[in-house]
Amino acid sequence: MIRLSTQPFEPGAELTAFCAGRTESGAVASFVGIARAEAGQSTALELEAYPGFTEVEIARFAREAIARFSLHDVLVVHRHGVLAPGEPIVLVATAAAHRREAFEACDYLMDYLKSRAPFWKKEHGPGGARWVEPTARDLDDIARWD
Amino acid sequence: MRVLLFGRLADVAGWRERAFDPAPASLTALKALLATEDALLGEALSGRGVQVAVDKAIVRGELALATAAEVAFLPPMSGG
């Protein structure tokens, strides 16, 4: 399931619900991305999505991950709008029969989200605002899977 | 036709969404119109990594555009 939210979400509650009732998935891996304060240099993070496109693109990629890693299920919850430091930006959870597939798929999905998912990210700080684009490391990370 | 700008492109242009009537007949014509109105935006639109979505599907190259099309210009993406 893919969900965009303009409101804060609670990763623990999301993960509990995602694990509930699973009797055949021996492994659930998860990742939570949190907005950093950068020692006061980042006072807010603004994330822009393209509603109706962003969810569909993430879902398409999630289906690819499900096939590639034989996943039982995927959950992506992603904030957009304005976030304060310390607030969760994203939760990715993957369910599989065994842990290796769950871990790897979680890593894969995060690499995708960082550099290819339709979001635009602006960091606000004392010196003004700047657009954050994928770093060289983000691009190397996603290229590992090609 | 609806034209949407995302991320830094909207900052460059000073708008996020505009209606065009009459609608340019192709992607090239739309880009030329935008560049004529605003040279900085024109330059930003042809910048590296800018993708185009028509009716919420990524397109590449030249394309004829329907009058009712929604055209979105997407600069390099970054989530997570």
- Percent range for β-strand residues of chain B: 15-25%
User: Which structural class should the secondary elements of chain A be placed in?
Assistant: alpha+beta
Helix segment tally of chain A = 4
Which structural class should the secondary elements of chain B be placed in?
alpha+beta
Rg over CA atoms of chain A? 15 Å
| Terminal residue distance of chain B | 31 Å
Largest interface: A-B, 26 and 16 residues
As an assembly, this protein is heterodimer
Write a compact overview of the structure shown.
The complex is a heterodimer of chains A (146) and B (80). By secondary structure, chain A is of the alpha+beta class. Chain A is built from four helices and eight strands.
Structural summary, described in words:
The complex is a heterodimer of chains A (about 150) and B (about 80). Chain A is α+β, with helices and mostly antiparallel strands and about 150 residues long. Chain A has four helices and eight strands, in the order E-H-E-E-H-E-E-E-H-E-E-H. Chain A has helices spanning about 10-20, 55-70, 100-115, 135-145; strands at about 1-5, 25-35, 45-50, 75-80, 80-85, 90-95, 120-125, 130. A four-stranded mixed sheet of chain A has the order 1-4-6-2, with helices on both faces. The radius of gyration of chain A is 15 Å and the shape is globular. Chain B has helices at about 10-15, 25-35, 40-45; strands spanning about 1-5, 15-20, 50-55, 55-60, 70-75. In chain B, helix 2 (about 25-35) runs antiparallel to helix 3 (about 40-45). At the A-B interface, helix 3 and strand 7 of A face loops of B.
